[in-house]
Amino acid sequence: MAGVNVQAAVLSTRDTTIPNLDFQHSFCKQYGRSSADIRNSQEQKTFTRRSSHYKSNSLAATPTSWERNSVGSAKYRSVPHRRHVKVSAIAEPLTEPPQLESASKDTSKEAKFDWNKQWYPVAIIKDLEEDQPLAVTVIGRPLAVWWDKSSNKWQVYADKCPHRLAPLSEGSITQDGQLRCSYHGWTFKGDSGECTFIPQAPSDSKPHTSTKACVTVYPSIEQQGFLWFWPDLSQGAINIEAAANPPPFFPELNDPTYGFDMSVREVEYGYDTLVENLLDPAHFVNSHHKIQGRREDGGPWNLKLESKISAPGFKGMADFGPYDFTAPCTVTMNASYPPEISIRTNLYGDHSENLLVHALIVLLTSLKARLSKNPAPNIVATIFFCVPVSPGRSRCYWAFPRNFAAFTLKNVPQWIQHRMPNLVFDSDMLLLHVVERKLEHEGLSGYYSPTKADVLVLAFRKWLNSFAGGAPDWGGTF
Question: 200, 215, 293, 356: which could form a disulfide with 285 (CB 3.0–4.6 Å)?
Answer without folding.
Answer: 293
